[in-house]
Design brief:
By secondary structure, this protein is α/β, with parallel strands linked by helices. The chain is built from 14 helices and 17 strands. It has three domains: 174 residues, 3-Layer(aba) Sandwich (Molybdenum Cofactor Biosythetic Enzyme, Chain A), CATH 3.40.980; 68 residues, Alpha-Beta Plaits, CATH 3.30.70.2860; 155 residues, CinA-like (Maf protein, Alpha-Beta Complex). The strands form four sheets. Strands 2-1-3-8-7-6 form a six-stranded mixed sheet, sandwiched between helices. Strands 14-13-15-16-17 form a five-stranded mixed sheet, with helices on both faces. Strands 10-11-9-12 form a four-stranded antiparallel sheet. α3 packs across α4 and α7 packs across α8.
């Protein structure tokens, strides 16, 4: 990897208040990785004097500093002014930029206001980066020697992604690509794992790979999923991939970033199979996940949301006395729900879920977080599983649907 350092400074009080999501780090991280570069640090500060402090802190620490936001026409947009002040450069009105702003206003029927001229102010020695998607241009400023510091190469970019990304693609990324000293570019491969916890993935696969010394191993855990991330040269990763696939076995969900639902829909298509769902405690969340996948209409036939006991009987044919004897949250009712959904829809598979999501409803015999899942399949005995998921309602739904999809995925893998 290159030792060339790139930092990101994001400005804007709205980012720290949470009213606007910051997507810049993810975008830049993906875009510069193929050059052998990574964002070494990201700093987010509010509008105002904190920008000055953050700028000075980065001097001497990084080779390139990308600053986002604070280039607009209002009084809280002071990035260019602070940069000029720190570098000891005068701000000069850039006539070409001013003309572009005036023309943009004219075309859109806006009244040009005098304060908009601020966006055309450029520190001496800076190169203007035209903004084809907004009014504020970007700026590229080469290193400046101070008395006790040397500034990095500065890129000042507008904050909105629809303006920043095209500008960065045209001006910033080519600059970084040219400066990158990595002769052999790294490769990154992510293996999505289901049914195996993060610690188990590390013990079974990660520790073996870490011994090599030429692979960077990382993990990212989500509910019932783990991403195993490997970084190295393509040659090295090609060499170890057969071992990775062997060690992960049926727990490997995807090598291409597919979600669980995408993988299940793909498997159903390959087998010419169909699926229906019958949900109580998840309220349609399982059907929602499946139908979020493009092309799912080829395999998803029908979804039943039977939240009440009456609806379980009326829509799925679950016997009333079965519910009275065993309760709505039981193996018996889960099986009846799945079998009823499969018969009514004529699907190859039917998944049912019934449980206690909480925070109320548990008892001595059935604790909060109890979940029964049943899977009915044409010509096969219906399977059922009990899970205990003591968590909040939203996480319960995520875990419940993830677990149900994993049972279906495993059933298709084994053909049982």
């Amino acid at each position: 990897m290159s030792v060339f350092s790139v930092e990101l400074l994001c400005t804007g009080t709205e980012l720290l208040l949470g009213s606007v999501s910051d997507t810049h780090l993810a975008w830049f991280g993906r875009e510069i990785f193929p050059y052998g570069l990574r964002i070494s640090r990201q700093t987010t500060v509010p509008d105002g004097a904190a920008i000055r402090d953050a700028l000075l802190e980065s001097f001497g620490r990084t080779d390139v500093l990308i600053v986002t936001g604070g280039l607009g026409p209002t009084t809280d947009d002071i990035t260019r002014e602070l940069v000029a002040e720190i570098l000891g450069r005068r701000l000069i009105l850039h006539q070409e930029t001013l003309a572009r702003i005036e023309e943009r206003c004219r075309k859109r029927g806006f009244v040009f206001q005098h304060r908009m001229e601020r966006q055309a102010l450029v520190p001496e020695g800076a190169t203007v980066l035209p903004n084809e998607n907004g009014s504020a241009p970007g700026l590229s400023i080469p290193p400046v020697e101070g008395v006790s510091w040397r500034s990095p190469h500065l890129f000042l970019l507008p904050g909105p992604p629809r303006e920043l990304q095209p500008m960065a693609s045209e001006h910033v990324l080519p600059f970084l690509k040219d400066l990158s000293s990595a002769s052999v570019k790294p490769d990154c491969r992510i293996y999505r794992v289901a049914g195996m916890g993060e610690s188990t993935v590390e013990e079974k696969v990660g520790m073996e790979l870490t011994k090599r010394g030429d692979i960077e191993v990382g993990y990212c855990a989500r509910p019932n999923e783990v991403d195993l991330r490997l970084i190295g040269t393509a040659k090295v990763l090609d060499e170890v991939e057969p071992l990775v696939l062997t060690l992960l076995g049926d727990c490997l969900l995807s090598k291409t970033g597919e979600s669980m639902e995408e993988s299940v829909v793909s498997m159903l298509k390959m087998r010419g199979a169909t699926v229906a769902t019958a949900e109580s405690c998840t309220g349609g969340a399982l059907a929602n996940r499946l139908t979020n996948v493009p092309g799912s209409s080829a395999v998803f036939l029908e979804g039943f949301v039977t939240y009440s006991n009456q609806s379980k009987t009326e829509l799925l044919g679950v016997p009333t006395d079965l519910i009275l004897r065993h309760g709505a949250v039981s193996a018996e009712v889960a099986v009846a729900m799945a079998e009823g959904a499969r018969v009514i829809s004529a699907a190859s598979y039917a998944l049912s879920l019934t449980g206690i999501a909480g925070p109320d409803g548990g008892g001595a015999d059935k604790q909060l977080g109890t979940l029964w899942i049943a899977l009915a399949a044409t010509g096969k005995e219906t399977q059922m599983w009990k899970n205990i998921l003591p968590t909040d309602r939203l996480t319960f739904k995520q875990l419940a649907t993830q677990t149900a999809l994993e049972y279906l995925r495993r059933r298709m893998l084994t053909g049982s």
